[in-house]
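hiii, so i know i said id send this last week but things got crazy w the move. better late than never?? heres the sequnce for the chain we talked about at the cafe, plus the structure i predicted for it. fair warning i was half asleep when i ran it
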Amino acid sequence: MRLDQILHRQVRVARVFGIPVRIDYRWFIVFALSTWLLAANFQRGFWEVRLDDSAAWVVGIVTTLLLFASVLGHELSHALAAQGEGIEIDEIVLHPFGGLARLRREPDSPRAEFRIAAAGPAASFIFALVAYGVMYLTDWGRSAAWAVCAIIAGGNLMLAVFNLLPGYPLDGGRVMRSYLWHRSGQLDQATRTVSQFGQWIAMTIIVFGVYMAYEYGAYFMALWSVLVGLFLWDAARAVWRAHTGRHARTVAEAMTAPVALEPDTLVSHFIDTVLPIHRQESFAVARQRRLHGILTLADLKKLPREHWHKTRVSEVMRPVDPRLFVAPSTPLVRAAELMKSNGAGALAVIDDAGELVGYLQSGRLKRKGGQ
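okay and structure toks below
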């Protein structure tokens, strides 16, 4: 396995309110770098707070953990707001440039989109206010606790303000999307517009980084700005391509997030709790992102109702078959041919690591292509 593949892998570290929390392996690099920078500053004297080596490292670790806990709180606010709108959450992922709450589907209305998008910055503003409040309860500028609270307050304030920039996938972009969606009634059109704004913002951040390096020699800030800008550019570009169906050429550009069922799920539970929320003709069956098969409603209709409460999804699904899955790089033309011939009318999307990363349905693909 190549180094870049290892760094892009994730590990689950917790489950909060029933939501899995994963961290990107690259997070450990940023964690170590942040701890080192903070410890070095406290050793030299940070806002008149100077610590010995061991205490500086302890404070550096604690401060970094609190900063990432703030990011987790920001994303958890999005997730809880989405759950309040009836949207299930697949996971929360922490990566080197922040975090991401993966929603299983788009919000039902512009108002729901606004509430979900605004929840994150609102939480960060609250965290900043709480940290500022604790600062006033400590000796002003004289203790490590005061310095830590100052960093947490400033970090959360910056996180909230930065996320309010009006470009997708930032929260400000989602707020703007809710407004454009409300005005036009077209979600895809609104998404394309704010994703273009996101690309412009990303380019501005990259140019700012180059300017800081050239004009002031601030190479660390410049490098970080360029990396953040490239990350935002890639994310905004991916969103724009995903919502421009007529330009899609590969499965990766047209697939949606999979709604995966556990193999041991009872059919009665699926029909009572999952199907009313996710109205689609077929579902991927997977455990820990490993595909087991595909369940279609057509096959399910053959099962007598009285057997629903004692039959598991794995007993009625179509087991894994080469005709039921493709790679993200597969041409859409080939995928469409497979969906016509495999009897399921759908395909699971499996990456090089063998993990389920997307789902493709012929009916939704046609509607997308016709927009």
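btw The radius of gyration is 23 Å. thought thatd interest u
miss u guys!!
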